[in-house]
Amino acid sequence: MVRLTARLTLAAVLAYAALVKVGDLTEAGRTVALYRIVPDDQAQLIGGVLPFVELAIALLLAAGLATRVAAVGTAVLLVVYVAAIASVWARGMSIDCGCFGGGGTLSDGAERGYAIDIARDLVLLGAAALLIRHPRTPYALDSWVLDPKEREA
Q1: Most buried one in 19, 70, 128, 151, CB count within 10 A?
Q2: Which helix (H) or strand (E) holds 38?
Q3: Mind listing the UniProt keywords for this protein, alphabetically (predicted)?
Q4: What is the pLDDT of residue 114?
């Protein structure tokens, strides 16, 4: 039951993050640019592609199809997100991470709780790690498409 909860939680979080960004891909690109990690033109590309990657992984996780691969993809995204947020924090920047849409520079004097964002992503990374190690969950399409010998693993 824990693995099913992990799979569905990751699917829900990624789907929500993707759907709120898909509505304004230009804004998503601007948010990536605020991190000042990649040039602006690359930030626009990343911001435009990222929501679709998140949505594809969310759909795989929701269906329980290629669960280990989807969990690896989730883990990679989360490691990148943690590194990017930590980078902004270390450089003393004050931005909204844009993790769930929006994003932007905070007004003077406003502080962002980067520790909360990082902690949240690390908890989600733990859920992804669990699914990488133990990808078989109830109500998953994986159990119908895998070789019977692999189902027992």
Answers
A1: 70
A2: none
A3: Membrane, Transmembrane, Transmembrane helix
A4: 87
How confident is the model over 94-151, as pLDDT tens digits?
888 888 876 666 545 445 578 899 999 999 999 999 999 999 999 999 988 865 555 5
Paired with 96 in beta bridges are 104
Question: What is the β-pairing status of strands 95-96 and 104-105?
Answer: antiparallel
Three-state SS at 101: strand
Segment 25-48, tens digit of pLDDT: 999 999 999 999 999 999 999 999
Residues 34 and 98: beta-carbon distance below 8 Å = yes
Residue 17 and residue 144: Cα distance in Å, rounded?
29
pLDDT, residue 110, reads 44
Distance in angstroms (rounded) separating the CA atoms of residues 125 and 105: 26
pTM, rounded to two decimals: 0.88
Every domain of the chain and the residues it spans: 2-142
